[in-house]
Amino acid sequence: MTTTSPPVTTRQGVLELAQVSRWYGNVVAVNDVTMTIGPGVTGLLGPNGAGKSTLLHMMAGFLAPSNGTATLDGRQIWHNHDIYRQIGLVPEKEAVYGFLTGRQFVLSAARLHGLPSPADAARRALDLVEMTEASGRRIETYSKGMRQRVKVAAALVHDPQVLLLDEPFNGMDPRQRLHLMDLVRRMGEEGRTILFSSHILEEVERVAHHIEVLVAGRHAASGDYREIRRRMADRPHRFRVRSSDDRRLAAALIADLSSSAVSLTEQGIEVQVTDFARFTALLPRTARDLDVHLWQVSPTDEDLESVFSYLISGSAR
Amino acid sequence: MNTVVADITYRAMLGRKRIWLLVLLPVALVAIAALLRLLNGESEQTAVTLMKTFAIGTMLPLLGLIGGTGVIAPEIEDGTIIHLLSKPISRPVIAVTKFVVAASLIAVFAAVSTFAAAYLLTGTESGVATGFTLGALFGGVAYAAVFLLLGVLTRHAVAIGVIYALVWEGVVGGYVPGARKFSIQQWAQSLADQISSSAFFSTEVTLGFAVPAMVIVTVGAVLWTGQRLRSLSLTGDD
């Protein structure tokens, strides 16, 4: 008996990186990354300098991989200007032609794409980002958020299947940020492939249904944001506690299972916490019971770098 | 040629303050010619000297530098070029368009001012004005191509361009006869010499060498620019 598999429908807008590396001289910016980005919103998360821009530039055809291949629907991206019929790119650099008005800028994008009715396309795109009203003004008079939106409009003018955004929410005020997030989410729901980079987890989890984490040029984690979030919360935390009686408090803390190590230092007590929830309940209760005053409780490893490096060590296991 | 690319580039070059860079030297040339005319009256010898040293010798390479690098280097530097490159247009077409814009600007500003200055000093005597105008026109086109290429090859295009124009063409070309064969300035002069019958003016480089050299350099530089743009890499901040 033979089984016939259903016909494979060719999905549109699938970006694929296969064992992609990129180095500059002796410096490796991206190291052996393999990932597939399909329709929907994907967030590319990583600290500054992780190689996010390098990766995005390779997907946008502005950088050749030193090794490996970057393709869109099976077609090579590098040296292929036809690919831009399908790709819209919002670069991070703020620079746009300041001497053009918003409308002229978006209209020029429509014309460069050779669209049949560029004026209509430009109007639609400006409407979408709510920039119609200001579109008669020169771009050099725009705020950072407005520039960002007009760049998004130019990238969307040809209704691309794939949209790449490099740190799109940087420098926007909260209202503009919410508006752009909403727009990105909506376009993802329409079935477009959207990839945006960010170094802020909260930003990514508000918009993306899928997250790729890049740390020090390496693909550190991939998955649903809840999964990433859980792994971040589960990691061991380190706290520094200063109190009126460090020694007594330290003895009581190590007696509980929530901590794996407690050390007395000049600056107070250093606590290695293994059960975050339990520790946060235990500390104030113990202090009250012992009649010890807490002067300071602060995490010592809450910075993104240590969160990310934990993720890498986790994915290596 | 792409009209949208040309339109944006013309606006960038002629808009606001940048146009003064292109206007300044031609205005200076005409002003000097007017002054000499007032002080000395008509003089073919003065005209030839001014054309050789200032119009072709100084203004033309500097205009070439301003125009040739100006149409592309600032855009690469600040990243605005992404707007043009992230479109389904072949990169050689963008290169040719940038070249046409640069060449047309240099040709117009250099040729018009050269003719005006020479005419002020000698009228149509001995074909000096026509000769140098054609020299400036074609020399300007060649400079546009070379400096355009320089603008996509290096981020230090202006510095290297100034060194080339002043050191190679000015000093080396002035004292080392062999180097004159490989100088756009000398090619422009031999074109001028061909048309002008002035006795105050003679050049060493033959027209048979200058014209093919100019064509090869111009076409080669534009083609190379196109290839270079195809592989233009933009690096992010990280």
UniProtKB/TrEMBL annotation, chain B:
<feature type="transmembrane region" description="Helical">
    <location>
        <begin position="157"/>
        <end position="176"/>
    </location>
</feature>
<dbReference type="GO" id="GO:0140359">
    <property type="term" value="F:ABC-type transporter activity"/>
</dbReference>
<feature type="transmembrane region" description="Helical">
    <location>
        <begin position="93"/>
        <end position="121"/>
    </location>
</feature>
<dbReference type="GO" id="GO:0005886">
    <property type="term" value="C:plasma membrane"/>
</dbReference>
<feature type="transmembrane region" description="Helical">
    <location>
        <begin position="19"/>
        <end position="39"/>
    </location>
</feature>
<protein>
    <submittedName>
        <fullName>ABC transporter permease</fullName>
    </submittedName>
</protein>
<dbReference type="Pfam" id="PF12679">
    <property type="entry name" value="ABC2_membrane_2"/>
</dbReference>
<keyword id="KW-0812">Transmembrane</keyword>
<feature type="transmembrane region" description="Helical">
    <location>
        <begin position="51"/>
        <end position="73"/>
    </location>
</feature>
<feature type="transmembrane region" description="Helical">
    <location>
        <begin position="127"/>
        <end position="150"/>
    </location>
</feature>
<keyword id="KW-0472">Membrane</keyword>
<feature type="transmembrane region" description="Helical">
    <location>
        <begin position="205"/>
        <end position="224"/>
    </location>
</feature>
<keyword id="KW-1133">Transmembrane helix</keyword>
